[in-house]
């Protein structure tokens, strides 16, 4: 049995089943002061009533940190500038929230004189890595309490924890009938576990909070214009908004058209395949709009080089290496590519789809005269003959060699 001595613990606390049970268990196990810490990254009403619940469960106090603006500006926007998507579908809403949460947890631990930080991430998941890689980079001296990996943790699954919570009079919303987990922030809501662990089973429509079903979306398309400066969204339909507001507004608009739902079997960093259901309406249209402006403003070779690195960047975020030097170096390259990504994309939203209907930019590299089939426009078509001849040298050589064999 672990014999670690803890004087003061800062526990990442949501008020959900896992962290509520962990708070009570850790209070009994370590007999130390526990500060419950809740990061507000946009989970809305879920922070209401947390203080009373945390104190009754065993915390000495609850600290709620409003991280929404920092989260949007310093974490979500850099990721959007990279067009980061994991395994073709996942917009990394949960992944990108973990480093900002862990960063603030370290700051609170320093301010409160704590010698340990704790979390409720399962030993089978990605979040343990994301949180602890941040701890490793920012505060390697702090002890890390991860109950799910400990030999003295008495629970094997959620049904046992629900029973324990009921015995201890800890109010929780999870039930045996609907034991799936939900995680919400500005960017998205993720759903996993319980009934969703069967990849053949379609999720209930009533689990979704940010979007209507595409079948129930309006029968008339809606057009929305998103403006970008240096790759960051700054206005929707002409109204300039701050980072938090623009994500919230995008969620509202895209959500009513059923945009941004994803059902994915993904590859976790720990080597397990898992099924996650996500809804990211706002991030979906913000990324589509960003791509639209980039089509006009990015040099071909810069775009292709950046795109070749997007999957690697997404893996860094997904696997928890936001504060790693390789992500920071790649971010510098991406941000340099964004200095002329200024302009507006017009999107057409209709029953779950978002399509580009127009784009314009003061830094556009698009030349209508150059591309037109109706006029010469300063392009000498005969020059293409030399390009084609040189590009085909190796192919003709290959054909001659094959003909001899």
What do you see in this structure?
The protein is an alpha/beta fold and 405 residues long. The protein has two domains: 8-67 and 98-177, HUPs (Rossmann fold), CATH 3.40.50.620; 184-360, Argininosuccinate synthetase, chain A, domain 2 (Alpha-Beta Complex). 41% of the residues lie in helices and 19% in strands. It contains 13 helices and 14 strands. The chain has helices spanning 17-30, 50-57, 68-81, 93-112, 127-138, 158-167, 243-255, 281-297, 300-319, 325-337, 368-371, 383-391, 393-404, and strands spanning 8-12, 33-40, 61-66, 116-118, 143-145, 181-184, 189-192, 222-229, 232-236, 239-240, 261-267, 273-279, 343-350, 353-360. A five-stranded parallel β-sheet has the order 3-2-1-4-5, sandwiched between helices. The chain has a five-stranded antiparallel β-sheet with strand order 10-9-8-13-14. Strand 6 and strand 7 form a beta hairpin. It starts with 7 loop residues before the first strand and ends with a helix.
């Amino acid at each position: 049995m672990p014999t670690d001595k803890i004087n003061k613990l800062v526990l990442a606390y949501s008020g959900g089943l896992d962290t509520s049970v962990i708070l009570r268990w850790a209070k009994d196990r370590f007999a130390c002061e526990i500060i419950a810490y809740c990061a507000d990254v946009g989970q809305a009403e879920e922070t209401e009533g947390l203080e009373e619940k945390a104190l009754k469960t065993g915390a000495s106090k609850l600290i709620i940190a409003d991280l929404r603006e920092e989260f949007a500006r310093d974490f979500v926007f850099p990721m959007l500038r990279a067009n980061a998507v994991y395994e073709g579908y996942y917009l990394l809403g949960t992944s990108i929230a973990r480093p900002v949460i862990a960063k603030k947890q370290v700051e609170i631990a320093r301010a409160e004189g704590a010698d340990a930080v704790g979390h409720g991430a399962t030993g089978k998941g990605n979040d343990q890595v994301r949180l602890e890689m941040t701890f490793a980079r920012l505060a390697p001296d702090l002890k890390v309490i991860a109950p799910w990996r400990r030999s003295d943790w008495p629970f094997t699954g959620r049904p046992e924890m629900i029973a324990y919570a009921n015995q201890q009079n800890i109010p929780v919303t999870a039930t045996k009938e609907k034991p799936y987990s939900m995680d919400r922030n500005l960017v998205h809501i993720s759903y996993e576990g319980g009934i969703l662990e069967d990849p053949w089973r379609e999720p209930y429509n009533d689990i979704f909070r940010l979007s209507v079903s595409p079948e129930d979306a309006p029968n008339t398309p809606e057009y929305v214009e998103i403006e970008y400066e240096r790759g960051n969204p700054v206005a929707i339909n002409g109204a300039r908004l701050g980072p938090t507001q623009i994500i919230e507004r995008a969620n509202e608009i895209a959500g009513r058209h059923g945009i941004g739902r994803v059902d994915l079997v993904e590859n976790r960093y720990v080597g397990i395949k898992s099924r996650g259901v996500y809804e990211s309406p706002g991030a979906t249209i913000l990324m589509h709009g960003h791509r639209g402006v980039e089509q006009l403003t990015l040099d071909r070779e810069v775009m292709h080089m950046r795109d070749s690195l997007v999957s690697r960047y997404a893996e860094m975020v997904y696997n928890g290496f936001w504060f790693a030097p390789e992500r920071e170096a790649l971010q510098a390259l991406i941000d340099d590519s964004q200095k002329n990504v200024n302009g507006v994309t017009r999107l057409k939203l209709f029953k779950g789809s978002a399509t580009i209907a127009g784009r314009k930019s003061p830094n556009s590299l698009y030349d209508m005269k150059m591309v037109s089939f109706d006029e010469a426009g300063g392009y000498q078509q005969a020059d293409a003959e030399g390009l084609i001849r040189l590009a085909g040298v190796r192919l003709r050589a290959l054909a001659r060699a094959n003909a001899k064999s």
